[in-house]
Design a protein that fits this description.
Number of domains of chain B: 1
Oligomer: heterodimer
Distance between the termini of chain B: 15 Å
Number of domains of chain A: 1
Number of strands of chain A: 2
Strand content of chain B: under 5%
Structural class of chain B: mainly alpha
Helix content of chain B: over 70%
Radius of gyration of chain A: 18 Å
Structural class of chain A: mainly alpha
Number of strands of chain B: 0
Shape of chain B: globular
Largest sheet of chain A: 2 strands, antiparallel
Shape of chain A: globular
Largest sheet of chain B: none
Order of helices and strands of chain A: HHHHHHHEEH
Strand order of the largest sheet of chain A: 1-2
Distance between the termini of chain A: 28 Å
Largest interface: A-B, 42 and 45 residues
Strand content of chain A: under 5%
């Protein structure tokens, strides 16, 4: 009962889109979405780790003994997280500083370990690659969406690439509640509500 | 002595790990549906976080820094936490079965609780000394427990309320967490 390959990819974009459908990996979702740029950067970093760990876990799935599998997966994931950490330090230092401890914390992001355990350990390499890519892109888009909503309402501007571009006229009163901690919870809760509304026909 | 007290207060209330630093939100939403599970999770976190905070501090100071291996920090910390959780689980099962039964499934879940890993990293990034790291770990864990138990109390009441369909379950929980976070926000001016 193998599903079509395209479905493995597209399920990550709507049916199983991580922070909304599977309520997993919320910490980075809430913490780094102060702006569109930060959200998308975090999403891409997670996508890279997810993709690489899915490929490696799936190609080693017959070698890893099932008793110590979780420990093995964590070491694989931690290795890729360290690689991402170094790459971001080298190429996007400002983003690296802003995301702070949330980059090493990709290790304990339930989505990555969840996909390794639930999907990559049971499926072939190519299928796991598509799954990782789909879930990763879905995660990135959700973070970018939440980031833009919060940044737009909180500051009236959007950061596409390093500098903020004003969207609303200067007379817009800045609603700074949205970029603080409480706003993160409320914004995510309301987006989830909208998604429920859209999903139910 | 005063500094330590200020540190403890700021870790419990002002920089509350759940509501101000956004760490450990998966168990926050996952185990707050019932008061019993919330208390179990809070106890397990206090237990593991203090031990993990102290051990990772020692590993970092006397091993990683000594041998210039800081780049292995992520790997080393997660291994310490994972094996610590496993060890604690085995130890409790053999020697204190009552506590083991109480903590139940929450112990293994703690490995992927980012609050634990997060506090260990904060301790290192802020360059705390041993005493500060110990107090900070304990205070963060208490803050975690406080927020979790308060939230579980609120959530038990939500079950009785009539919530519009699309807002049900996680959605309303997140909005409620936002309001709870707003109250903790008021502590910001304290220290």
């Amino acid at each position: 009962m193998a599903k079509p390959l395209a479905q493995e990819f597209f399920k990550g974009l709507w049916d199983e889109v991580p922070p909304f459908r599977l309520v997993l990996g919320l910490c980075p979702v809430l913490a780094v979405t102060k702006s569109l740029y930060n959200g998308a950067g975090m999403g891409l970093a997670t996508t890279f780790v997810l993709l690489c760990s899915n490929i490696l876990v799936s190609s080693l799935r017959k070698v890893i003994p099932s008793k110590v599998r979780i420990a093995c997966y964590i070491v694989i994931i931690a290795t890729f997280v360290t690689i991402v950490e170094f790459m971001m330090k080298a190429f996007t230092y400002k983003l690296f500083m802003e995301l702070g401890i949330f980059i090493p914390l990709i290790v304990v992001n339930c989505i990555v370990l969840g996909r390794a355990e639930a999907f990559a350990s049971k499926n072939g390499v190519f299928r796991s690659l598509l799954d990782g890519l789909g879930i990763g892109i879905g995660f990135t888009l959700s973070l970018a969406l939440l980031g833009s909503v919060r940044e737009l309402l909180g500051t009236g501007a959007l950061t596409f690439w390093k500098t903020a571009t004003p969207i609303f006229p200067a007379s817009y009163p800045k609603f700074s509640f949205m970029i603080e901690a409480p706003g993160a919870f409320v914004a995510l809760g309301l987006l989830l509500c909208l998604m429920n509304l859209a999903g139910k026909k | 002595m005063g500094d330590i007290f200020v540190l403890a207060i700021s870790c419990i209330l002002i920089n509350n790990i759940l509501l101000a630093q956004y760490l450990g939100n998966c168990p926050f939403l996952g185990t707050s549906k019932k008061m019993e599970t919330a208390i179990g999770m809070a106890m397990a976190v206090v237990f593991v976080l203090v031990m993990a905070g102290v051990i990772t501090w020692i590993v970092n100071t006397y091993f990683l820094v000594q041998f210039n291996l800081e780049y292995l920090r992520t790997v080393a910390f997660i291994l310490v936490i994972a094996s610590l959780v496993q060890f604690v689980e085995m130890f409790l099962k053999k020697s204190i079965p009552a506590l083991y039964a109480g903590l139940g499934i929450f112990l293994p879940l703690i490995t992927t609780n980012c609050a634990v890993m997060g506090v260990c990293l904060i301790n290192v990034n802020e360059e705390y000394n041993f005493l500060q790291a110990l107090v900070a770990s304990f205070a963060y864990a208490v803050g975690f427990g406080l927020a979790l138990i308060l939230f579980a109390g609120v959530r038990e009441r939500i079950l009785l309320a009539r919530v519009p369909r699309p807002l049900q379950d996680t959605s309303i929980a997140l909005v409620t967490a936002g309001i709870l976070s707003l109250t903790f926000f008021a502590f910001k001016g304290m220290v």
